[in-house]
Structure formats: structure tokens, C-alpha cells
Amino acid sequence: MLDCVTLREIRLPLREPFAISSGVQEIRRILLLEVRDRDGLIGWSECVAGEYPNSSPETIDTAWHALREWLIPLAADVHRPEDVLAALNRRVRGHEMAKAALEMAIWHLESLRRQISLARLLGGTRDRVPVGISIGIQPSPETLIDKISGYRAEGYRKIKLKIKPGADRSVLEAVRKAFGPDLPLAADANAAYTTADADHLRSLDEFDLMMLEQPLATDDLLRHARLQEGMRTPICLDESITSVDRAEDMIELGSGRIINIKPGRVGGLAAARAIHDLCAAYGVPVWCGGMLESGIGRAHNVALASLPNFSLPGDLSPSRRYWARDIVHPEWTMTPDGFVEVPVDRPGLGVDIDLDRIERLTMRAEIIRA
Length: 370
Ligand code: NPG
Fold this sequence. Notes:
By secondary structure, the chain is α/β, with parallel strands linked by helices. The chain contains 13 helices and 15 strands. 36% of the residues lie in helices and 22% in strands. The strands form four sheets. The chain has a seven-stranded parallel beta sheet with strand order 5-6-7-8-9-10-11. Helix 1 packs across helix 3 (96-114) and helix 9 runs parallel beside helix 10.
């Protein structure tokens, strides 16, 4: 039973700008949730919505509004984290990122109540998860190649490049030329192409990518299926998968062969786990995506990614890739062979929240009674 929720906006400058096909980010405005139950336990989470609706229709401001006006009151009397999303969905359409933030904080609370790690609570079976890196669009192929060399030396197990029309073939060509056929390479279009580009996209088969992520529009499962039919490279869907039903649609229609699961995009950890289970049953590999989270969002992602079918490297970069200093202790790190360790033996998230620092970074805060 919830007592109150504190919403906070912090601003964390990225160590370097991050460019995708639809925009560039330099500072991350992050909405943090601190959920207190009637026994005084506190659960934390982070909403993945960005500042501007370029990657999803939600933003940090729409999420704040949805949480305050509709979602927190609806969750007040829900007992089990597994039941939160259904309770919210009965009355509110959409707003998955806002719903997820609330649900994920309630999972954290439950793990503290039971004194086990969030990873164990979710059914995670692994104590380390392979990590890949997602590299934003770079000013030149030379800069990109330099960066990839550095990231390979750090141990990353998958290199994902952001692409867009006009900056795709030339980039992939330069990278394959520099690193050869064995580099585990993927490309992410963030929905920047249309069916008019189908032949062009098919021609990317020659680069032997591990996957081509979200080439077409978010709501376009049918055209993704047509594209996949004529392509050897597996399509991985990200933005399109907003629920378990959309995942089932993808599998049934053949719109893709891999799913990038982001709990913050699908309405939370229960839905993320259900998508994981569905994909496992159909032999569809999954991996855990990232949304430039701080260490709090990363903690939820790492716990989820310890489930057995997260067989491909996740976007689970260590804290120092994005932040001069994170808001958790210890910061997230990566082993020299490219794994993040899952804190399975610590109750809850497995990291401590740096509340002093969060308070110093807070731009606005609001306490909402449940
Ligand atoms: O490591 O957290 C990370 C970033 C991974 O590339 C990444 N995220 O399309 O998946 C994406 C992309 C993204 C980030 C999209 C932020 C929108 C906002």
C-alpha cells in the first residue's frame, strides 16, 4: 500500500552529445520516482521518457502530468507489483513510460520487503550479462573508427551504430573495411526509413549485421514483415514493441526476428518479463535496450537482463560512458571482457542511491500523496 510518491527532475549533462536519426541530446532531464509505502520502505525508479517527443510520444513533462493526475491515485491500493500495470491500464490508455516508472519503483519496494535482489525477485538466473555499446551518429567515419577501436579495447561485445538516410552504407562500409567481418556489428535506424527505401535497406545485407534495428515507423508491423521477408539480416524491433501483444504480433507476422526489450517502454518489468517469456517460447532472442539512464534505471535493466533469454549483449554501458559522476554507489562498471555483474546477493537494486547528490541536482520536486 503506497503512502506517497516524490517526483523529482534532475539534470545530468552527458559527457558527450548523443545523436540519433531524430535529434541530439546534450543534457539528460531525468524524472526520478521515490515511492514510499505505509511501512516506510522506499522504492526508486527512473522514467525513460526524454525531453522532446522525437523518439516516443511521451516526454518527461507528459509523464509527470500523467503520474500526478491519474496514475499514482490508481496504484495507491495495489498490493502486488505484478498487478500494477493491469490496474493502470483499466483506466488510462498509453503513457507506458509513466506507467513503467511507477511499476518499477513498486518492484523495488517488493524486493526490499522480501530482502532479496530485484534480479532474483524477477527470476533472473545469471550473475553477469554481456554488454554492447550504442554509438551515436558521428561527424566523420574517422572519428567513428577511432571510437570503435577504443570501445573494443574496453571489452564491449557488440557495436551498434546509429544510422540514418544518407549516413548508412558509407558508414557501415568504412567500419567493415577497418575491422573486418568478425566485428559483432549492428545498426539502429530509430524508425528513420520508409518503404520507399526498401531496396536500399535490403542492400545492407552485404554488411553481415547481427541485426538491423527499427528501420521503419513505430506502428508499422506489416511493412516491417514485408521488409524482413526479403532480407537476410534479422530485423530487431524496439520502438514498435510497446506491449506483450505487439511482441506476439511481431512473431506472428514475421515483422522481425529479435526484440530489444526496454522495461521503461513496455509498461514495466512484468510486461518486459512476459515479452521475454513469450520470445523464449518461440526461440526469439532478446536483449535489454537502454535509454541513457542514470544508475537507477540501469539497476532495473541489469536485474531484468539477468533472465535467461537475454542472450544478446544489452545496451548496459557502465556509468562512466555517459556521466562524469553517477547518482548511485558503487557506479556501474564493466569487466575487461565486457560483462556487467548482477548484484544478485544484495537486497533491492544492489546499489545505494546518492540522495545528497540527487538533491543538489534537483530542479523541481513534488510530493504526491497516494
Ligand atoms: O546505452 O542507454 C544507452 C543508449 C542506448 O542507443 C541507445 N538508446 O534508440 O535505443 C535507442 C537509444 C535512445 C536513447 C533512444 C535515448 C532514445 C533516447
